[in-house]
Amino acid sequence: xxxxxxxxxxxxxxxxxxxxxxxxxxxxxxxxxxxxxxxxxxxxxxxxxxxxxxxxxxxxxxxxxxxxxxxxxxxxxxxxxxxxxxxxxxxxxxxxxxxxxxxxxxxxxxxxxxxxxxxxxxxxxxxxxxxxxxxxxxxxxxxxxxxxxxxx
Length: 152
Hints:
Elements: H1 6-13, H2 22-33, H3 38-48, H4 52-61, E1 73-78, H5 81-85, H6 88-99, E2 112-117, E3 128-131, E4 134-137, H7 144-149
Parallel strand pairs: 1-2
Antiparallel strand pairs: 1-3, 3-4
Helix pairs in contact: 1-2, 3-4
């Protein structure tokens, strides 16, 4: 049996029996734990009175939810056209080299997860990476290690 993180009970408890709060509960649990385990999804189903299949349907439909562990720090590299022509592929290679994970993966120590996107909407600042919601623009591959080391 996997132990649920301490705040899980409290988050679900605020909405006990209220199936209409499913998405809100999942969002709060995702924010707190960085992912949604099978045990947590079962607990949500039981305590909100929502069929488990419906909980899974919602958790797999929305991209905001992760069903596998995520790192404490999420690194996103933009590969959109503007970033691409300004060196984003080299930037991504440097991030991969530093973190030793590929896009879509999480480091074994659960410190970092790496994702790519097609556009962050900051084209004038490319190439661009985002770490934990902090935008770093006009960076070169030589700056990657310094940026990542500040998130230890």
